[in-house]
Design goal:
The protein has 397 residues and is an alpha/beta fold. The protein folds into two domains: 6-112 and 260-344, FAD/NAD(P)-binding domain (3-Layer(bba) Sandwich), CATH 3.50.50; 120-256, FAD/NAD(P)-binding domain. 32% of the residues lie in helices and 26% in strands. It is built from nine helices and 25 strands. The chain has helices spanning 14-26, 50-54, 120-123, 130-149, 166-186, 210-222, 264-268, 313-331, 367-393; strands at residues 6-10, 33-38, 42-44, 63-65, 75-79, 82-86, 91-94, 97-100, 103-106, 111-112, 158-162, 194-199, 225-229, 233-237, 240-243, 247-250, 253-256, 260-261, 278-279, 285-286, 289-294, 299-300, 345-349, 355-359, 362-365. Helix 1 (14-26) packs parallel to helix 8 (313-331). Bound molecules: flavin-adenine dinucleotide and nicotinamide-adenine-dinucleotide. Flavin-adenine dinucleotide binds at residues 11-16, 37-40, 46-47, 49-50, 81-82, 107-109, 127, 129, 167, 170, 296-298, 311-314, 316.
Length: 397
Amino acid sequence: MSNIPKIVILGAGYGGVLTALRLQKELNYNEADVTLVNKHDYHYFTTHLHMPAAGTDKTENARVSISKLIDEFKIDFVKSTVVQIRTQDKKVILEDGTLSYDYLVIGLGGEPETFGIPGMLEYAMNIRSINSVRLIREHIEYQFARFKREPHRTDYLTFVVGGAGFTGIEFVGELADRLPELCKQNDVDPSLVKLYNIEAAPTALPGFDPELVEYAMQVLTKKGVTFKIGCPIKECTPDGVIVGDNEEIKAATVIWAAGVRGNRLIEEAGIEVMRGRVKVDESLRAPGHENIYVVGDNSLMFNPEGRPYPPTAQIAMQQGVVCAHNLVASIRNQPLKKFEFKNKGTVASLGKGEAIGLAFGKKYKGGVAALLKKAIDIRYLYIIGGIPLVVKKGKFL
Ligand code: FAD
Ligand code: NAD
């Protein structure tokens, strides 16, 4: 048996991939055995998923094979699903095997938070993975075909998006672009199509710059989105949703984009969590577990004012870099680095050629913001896969 420390990374999302890439750069030969485990043999760009979900881009553009990202001489990749984390004997149980670890990195990403709303788990769809967006896209297209056979069923042409956070807003922007195209392809009168974005809070994008929120709503309303603001969804049924004061909206398509929580496997492992997220220490370790690091949507960190940082790809990537540094430092018995989030801003797309953003202390909207969004996407491709990945997946047109 070798004495080389074993590092196991769970999840090849933004946090896991950045951790793996930095470890492969920073570790010396034979300094540690690193294994990356992921459900699929590809890494997907969650930040891109609203497009293939609406059908405005190909699924292929939202993913890359993991073997193209990592150096498999330095990192073992295991395509499998984690089913249990056993901290007491430092093991991870996979659907088809077991892995032992000395150090564990948990980066399994979030799960949809339904807040116990009846019917939401059963009847709504979520924008979470390549498989979930395939389903959404096919489902939407199928509704047009169904309507042609049953023209009295206008609920087939009613689309409800729950939550006007960034996911909901980005998705309705794309869907509003796609629906006219689907009407044309299927000879459907566009005036029969309804697209609702329903938000419980008194404003869309709660907490974001009000001027930019106003701009986003104007752009999206013009594209045909009907906003219902201050109107919580109370139930999801096979026929649609119940909102506000028991109003029923009949819709054959409900997309739930109203929040994320951490991963259930973590709470099942007995690690302390708040809504499935681990309140990590300043070095990104789970409380009471010096050998377990948590990154991305599975982690919970607070800003200097005591408010939780929103779970974003941006913070997950920065955590991955510090996590890798701290793993190497732990192995070398060196001091750990403190994680400090450097907020580079937020840019959200509103469909083709339109976006809003706050970055570098400035507000952006319209085409300039859309270009900024594209630059952010390209920067990410460059960070993980260099110029070849930018050329392959970066969309320049
Ligand atoms: P993820 O990226 O979710 O990756 C988790 C990985 O773990 C996945 O590969 C998954 O397959 C794998 N996995 C899960 N369970 C298992 C299991 N049991 N076994 C094995 N593998 C498993 N953030 C931004 O900063 N900017 C944006 O523009 C932005 N846009 C977004 C747009 C949309 C539509 C959505 C939904 C989110 C967006 N976000 C954005 C948020 C961002 O995508 C997440 O915060 C980010 O993906 C979190 O990264 P992560 O590494 O924690 O997990
Ligand atoms: P979110 O939690 O940010 O937003 C969910 C929205 O749903 C909230 O506005 C909430 O008030 C609303 N909501 C909750 N319950 C509801 C109900 N019963 N009925 C109607 N509305 C309800 O979730 P998200 O938008 O999925 O974003 C998740 C994370 O990903 C956030 O941190 C976000 O910043 C990030 N993200 C970033 C971008 C970007 O930067 N472009 C894009 C997408 C997501």
